[in-house]
Amino acid sequence: MDKNVIRANVVIARKKEGGDGELEAYNGTARRIEEGEGCQVEVKADPKPGTVFVEQGKTKLTGSRLDYTEETGIAVIQGPIVFERPQDKGDTLRGASDKITVDVDNEKTFLEGKVTLESKCRTSSADKVEYDDGKNLAILFGKPAISRSKDGKDEIKGERLEYDLDSNDVVVTASGDGVSGQFDDEAPPCK
User: Do the Cβ atoms of 148 and 135 come closer than 8 Å?
Assistant: First the structure.
């Protein structure tokens, strides 16, 4: 996992013959066993929420377990997931999900299960989110995905919402049931 920093009580890295490797990170204990030939380690995994720490670009998150396979380039972080990411103008985007899957080779991140995103101005929820840290973009998918202003005066619903993580702008694209929304023209913009 090239551009990521991972911290946990136990991190196990295995190198397979031929080059590919695997990485496991979780809460637990590990101890070296002196018996026999070579180096043997006894590991007792005890995954708990908030014990695996990952930094990916501007985003910092916690989960209960991380598994990465170099052969597929896929990392799965089990939740509950809690994360935060600084935004423009001193705001911070905070969120949660059940699980995160990272396609390391293609630099794509997917938040899955009860996803929530919250900033100073907006709260959003979705079944799944595709997140691109480089483009500062989150694409929310749901039946429907919902994004509403904190004052409750603006609300957007649709199967696909594109959320600019720095500006807090949301673009809705229609499919299936279309798009619905409610807006207050008198409401001042969030700053």
Answer: no
